[in-house]
């Protein structure tokens, strides 16, 4: 294997929009590859031995050893997690069932780099059922569910991933997916752009046979647009991140559920009768407000934009200055909740962040000598003022919905279905249809995807029949 | 007065998007000027004498006779209606109070052509308090509230309007606003474009002194864009119709209230426990569904667009084929509810239209010999099938929210405030700021307007203080 | 006819619980017989001639003249109102259809004294379809819908009632129902006890053939208990007023709808974004709060009982001192809203009463010289303070839901179905089952009734089938 | 210590209402003392060593050894849990603060036997702050939070309890609370009646100095009524179980939150768009339905009682036969969900129990050879039909809200406050006020308690001031 060397080659990747760079200069993997992705990893047993997977010799029950994971023995537990996820991914399962006969991905050799979770496993097994061969690495060094990786390996997938990879491990795993004798990928499914970057830098000739890239993340899409702008993109790419489904559904409907879930799991607080201030009445704020109001909380809003403020009024929310008993943050700006506000909050106030980044709460201002921090549970700190007042800070001000609650599988299933359809589209499209450019998923395909989701929700049987969409492809 | 003649001059007005032209070729006023505008006129006493106002000699209590209305004696009743409206237009009243000192419209001579309703009266009296002189005609031959016109005349406004004008009356009234000795308008407030059209055709030289046009309606805006495209627009114009406030608030929040109001006033139906099918889950449908669900109806949705369908799912609505007990139509397509569906509806099903035009329900298909129509109340028909089944058709399939319920004054107050601010902006803008073009209201001004509305809602006191907007202008 | 004389005979009726007696001593009809019953009469044409119906000679189209009403020519209009009501009374219509064959009331001669409204007409025509003969008078001198009375007369019913009876007319009408040759009633359906009282005093021997009394009102039931206590009740009586259906459904579900309806019809106010104080969080208050919250109002509660207060908290309502923009009263105490509070209310505050009596708002305290009253619409007064502040008082502080909104027919249909079943039960019961006493409707019969209502709501088809109630009787 | 012997003495305890006796005859502790109390114990570290606490010698940091618990070293962790609980028990904390000066329990020697949880710890420390001395044992052999017991021991309380006691341990612990030299209890706080029973049988003379018993559980109250009936109750007892607060709030408001919490923690299911059947529309069902509807589920109801069914209709729920995607059980009957229904459910259907006992789902019928059970997570089983269909069964059909979600501390705080007030009342009452009988908490005291809760909810400040309750005692 060639020595990994790319520090000088990746200028165009340096301009990506990261609010606070927590990486030292010597680190080179993308930021998203190191962010902790809480919930997905929450069922992972932490008591495993400390031998590096790279030093282990493991085989699955059929004798296959073309993988590298933590512990093949966890396969059964992982299979259970996958089965749970399948229940909540009806559209993908229906796609699997429906397209199994025609195998639209027959001949596809997909190399993937995403979070290795139960939901991804359902996607991979669907791709496989549609005819594809897959090799997979993790796009984040912390987020792999080891037992799911085990189940995939047991099922014959070449998976190279474990929870707690080092940076060197990270690139090693990616390389092992790509650099294998007798197998050359013709499709890329990426989340963050690291896999694409790697192939670009190490095996550029591979792109001759690659029919397209499907990219999921903001960061990865940004990288692709830069490549495209620089004239260096040599295959068509599909931007799945900006599809309307993600924007429309992830924020409002996920947050409506995860605000309740996250608060319950961390604090067991009763919602009924609590006074809550939600900072910001955008999509995330709307979801949080709707859920808390429905549970009997008394919800106040702060909002700068008058249009959103008027919407809040018409939905029955009033405005608040000061901090009340339970405090939820949902906006995307920096330092919305500053020390001064927290100084004025009442004893017992819970402060948490449902925003987009980790900078909404000025946590740094709480790290001063006169305040005492007490860790009372995992993800829960009491910050204690000199007069004894306690503020309950969740997840140290990081995103509650990623740190302390699960992302509903159902929502992920929309994304996964979109990815599968994007792969099918790129793989089967006539050569002329897509140029060497970044494409938004065509509205028609998004509709197809959502239509498919609706038809398979249980509630949507009528929907399908009404519209008369008999054949999907 | 010159004879009215313009048949040959108005080609560019013929392309406006009217779905079904119900006018004979000899008619020349805009379509919107003849549509019945139900609720606004609902309190008008119909027992007036039949003498044409043009043949009457009337003076107000101060001896002023520069107006032409139905009956000056109704002024007191009209004043009451205006006072009721003032209660629901806090932003406009606050603007009146706040800007009274600086009189930003001092010197403005505004000629207006809008629905003459209590809400318009509040606008006119505000413009007057800000320093403007006003002359006003009706933009619709049916919609004038005679008693409000009387109150305006009594208050010294030169109003030329009454309910039930002929087409000749219509143009005569407009002409009387414009063509008056010793008074030349410098601002136009129009709704439908007929006033603008009239000045264009009859007194084009007036535009030399006119600083701008504020236009409210789809039709009028369309006309302005055509003029602009043809290079014939000679003053700046402000398109108030497409402002975000209208799109965002009118549909969702108005319909949420008017669906309940319209159904109650026509049928006294109990909502709790009723099964309702709402056709279409756009903004209007969302408002209808939310209201009916909250009142305990069991709501089903039909929807073609999968994105909206998925939103409906996530909000807890399921899909239906067939017609259930109470039927609400909200989409904007033609013939959504066809005869076949109505043949399959249950006895007693109520069918009504909350859409954008009057073509959603195929009413024509019900005008067949085998079906009997019975008018059971104003705006309520029973259509009776041969087997005795009755369908309850509201407003003969026309828009329920215009025909059978009032438009909440509060929502109109947002539009009226926007109009007032647009007039102030155009009147006071440095010459260079606006060219001879059609402008969308600047986002900043919209925000100002909405901010002002929120601050004066009662609920928004905190909002104003939080944001620190101390001075508005 | 004997001269009417009963001043000395009615001691036991004098103790009935009337909060404020507004009747002179010379008046002798029950209080409920003079209270205005707003909505029911709202469609009555007031332009009729002034001849007393007692002086008119009228026949229906079949030559029958055994009735006394305002104007037989209004029959068609009345028929329409009855048809509208039928749509909302599915349980009663189903009972009519189902029991038509077996005619469980064959031979019954029912004399009735209730409000003569479209809903009553549906009940009477059902009783007739089940085999009964009916003669009917009004229980209230104002509440008769003349056109409905006309339709009943046209249909062959002996109805004696019109809107605006004098007291002498009132008793004359009742007497004409009872005192007719060749017809002797064997069942009584009463609302208020006046009919029962009349027979008791004038024709006591009639009770020998009477099988039972069904009584609807609080007052009437009170009178019956007094008779029973005094040992003077000589037939079984059924107390329909205290049935669980009335207590459980009327308050919560009716008020949830009528608070919105009443406010819209009187003030056209927009609910979204309004601040509302609801005084009292009992069943009525719960209904009002739920509806206003759902429409986007910001709702505050005042409440004395801590249990209800805690329920309000858990439902997300907070407590308020002072009067906010829109003010709703729902409690049953005297003088909840006193002058002092109204002095502190903001300009434009709407004050209305959803309580049980008419004493919740201290209206008397507003009838002072420094305050000006302006009647701005029917049922709407502006009370103006010296500084110009206006309070909007609805229905002069009387019950909004009776004065300014309709009672949903559907809810009345539950009562009417209960009455019909009570009549059937009393008429067909074995002699020994009911003694000379007042009976609550047996729980089993209430269940039957409600079950029947649910099964015929459209939504309840499954309900019926699930429970396997195949035969109803 | 005398040998424990009571098999012959406890006849009157044998009649207590246990639905299914799962105990062998040789067991003698009350049923409630062995039921697993899931959530309370969920944070207990299970990795402790296996030495019996009775064999350990432990001292707290001040040298005190008068306790017997699992591990004094867990005190810090326990203190954190107590601090978390304090945040949600504002009424109790306010009572502690307010009554600290007057020490209404000065001289009280309370022996208690309840679940040893963080909430109980807050109660005990409050009693201590009010002047009482306490000795405490666990009322359930599984429910003790060891770390909380440690914190209490570290704080100087004589606690005798650990998770996983044997039956002998159980009685030994109780005995150690009572049978101590130089200390004789004068108040009893019991949950289940085992403590009371023990004193009765072993140390009857102690009752001479005991001022009263406060009992929390159904079982314990039942025992007290039996004693009272038999004339054997020799002190006054307060029945806290049947207080209105418990009945009114626990079911509706707790279940509204715990249905969501329990489903999320076990299955991570997304609620939006799911079809749910809730069996039974009593208080529990109402809470479940409200929560699920608010989260966007499509909710169907089954219900036998027509009154509840009509309420469901008016709230917008329809009825369902068959099993849809997500299935929730809430009724209190046996075998509501039978095998036949489960045979007809769709693949992936989740079945859980929110009822009152553990018999609603016929789990026994699923333990047949043709069905395969797979444990996929703690408390989550997949039951697999021969055709591959999976039903997801939660908590093996036991109560979801006890097994898989936490009981909100806030609700427990109402009970704890009631207990404290009951102790104060009994301890301070004039001798004549309470006889040797079982008393319901006086309505006035319940109101006081709830009032106190409301005033300290954060949202209730206004409430307190409005009502003018300045002094509480």
Automatic annotation (TrEMBL), chains A, B, C, D:
Co-factor binding details: Binds 1 NAD(+) per subunit.
InterPro entries: Adenosylhomocyst_ase-like_sf, Adenosylhomocysteinase-like, Ado_hCys_hydrolase_NAD-bd, NAD(P)-bd_dom_sf, S-Ado-L-homoCys_hydrolase_CS
Cytoplasm found in the keyword field: no
Alphabetized PROSITE patterns for the sequence: ADOHCYASE_1, ADOHCYASE_2
Biased segments, Basic residues type: 16-25
Residues annotated for substrate binding in this entry: 117, 191, 216, 246, 250
Compositional bias segments (type: Low complexity): 26-36
Binding residue positions for NAD(+): 282-287, 303, 401
TM helices/strands, residue ranges: 316-337
Keywords: Membrane, NAD, One-carbon metabolism, Transmembrane, Transmembrane helix
GO cellular component: cytosol
SUPFAM superfamilies according to UniProt: Formate/glycerate dehydrogenase catalytic domain-like, NAD(P)-binding Rossmann-fold domains
Pfam families: AdoHcyase, AdoHcyase_NAD
Family annotation (PANTHER family): ADENOSYLHOMOCYSTEINASE, ADENOSYLHOMOCYSTEINASE 3
Family in the record: Belongs to the adenosylhomocysteinase family.
Protein name: Putative adenosylhomocysteinase 3
Gene name linked to the record: LOC107579442
């Amino acid at each position: 294997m060639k020595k990994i060397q790319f520090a000088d080659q990746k200028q165009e990747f340096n301009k990506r929009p990261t609010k606070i760079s927590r990486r030292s200069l010597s680190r080179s993997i993308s930021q998203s590859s190191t962010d902790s992705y809480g919930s997905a990893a929450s069922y992972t047993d932490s008591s495993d031995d400390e031998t590096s997977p790279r030093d282990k010799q493991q085989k699955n029950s059929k004798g296959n050893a073309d993988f590298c994971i933590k512990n093949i023995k966890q396969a059964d537990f992982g299979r259970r997690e996958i089965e749970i996820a399948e229940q909540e991914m009806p559209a993908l399962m229906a796609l699997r069932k429906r397209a199994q006969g025609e195998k639209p991905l027959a001949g596809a050799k997909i190399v993937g780099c995403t979070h290795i979770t139960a939901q991804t496993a359902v996607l991979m097994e669907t791709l496989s059922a549609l005819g594809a061969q897959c090799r997979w690495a993790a796009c984040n060094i912390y987020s792999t569910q080891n037992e799911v990786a085990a189940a995939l390996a047991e099922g014959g997938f070449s998976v190279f991933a474990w929870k707690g990879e080092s940076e060197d491990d990270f690139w090693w795993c990616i390389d092992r997916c790509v650099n294998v004798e007798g197998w050359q990928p013709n499709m890329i499914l990426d989340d963050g752009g690291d896999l694409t970057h790697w192939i670009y830098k190490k095996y550029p000739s591979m792109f001759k046979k690659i029919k397209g890239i499907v990219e999921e993340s903001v960061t990865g899409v940004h990288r692709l647009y830069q490549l495209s702008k620089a004239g260096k993109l040599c295959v068509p790419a599909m931007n799945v991140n900006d599809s309307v489904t993600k924007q429309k559904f992830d924020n409002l409907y996920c947050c409506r559920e995860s605000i309740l879930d996250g608060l319950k799991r961390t604090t067991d607080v009763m919602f009924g009768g609590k006074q809550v201030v939600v900072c910001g009445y955008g999509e995330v704020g709307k979801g949080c407000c709707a859920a808390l109001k429905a549970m009997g909380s008394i919800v106040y809003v702060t909002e700068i934009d008058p249009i959103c403020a008027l919407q809040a009024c018409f939905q029955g929310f009033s405005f608040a200055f000061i901090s009340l008993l339970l405090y939820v943050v949902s906006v995307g700006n920096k330092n919305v909740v500053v020390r001064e506000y927290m100084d004025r909050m009442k004893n017992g106030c819970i402060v948490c962040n449902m925003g987009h980044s980790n900078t909404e709460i000025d946590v740094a201002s709480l790290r001063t000598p006169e305040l005492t921090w007490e860790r009372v549970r995992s993800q829960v700190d009491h910050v204690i003022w000199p007069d004894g007042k306690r503020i309950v800070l969740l997840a140290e001000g990081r995103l509650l919905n990623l740190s302390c609650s699960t992302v509903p599988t159902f929502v992920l299933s929309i994304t996964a279905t979109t990815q599968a359809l994007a792969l099918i589209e790129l793989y089967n499209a006539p050569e002329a249809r897509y140029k060497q450019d970044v494409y938004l998923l065509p509205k028609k395909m998004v509709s197809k995807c959502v239509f498919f989701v609706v038809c398979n929700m249980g509630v949507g049987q009528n929907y399908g029949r009404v519209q008369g969409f008999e054949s999907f492809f």
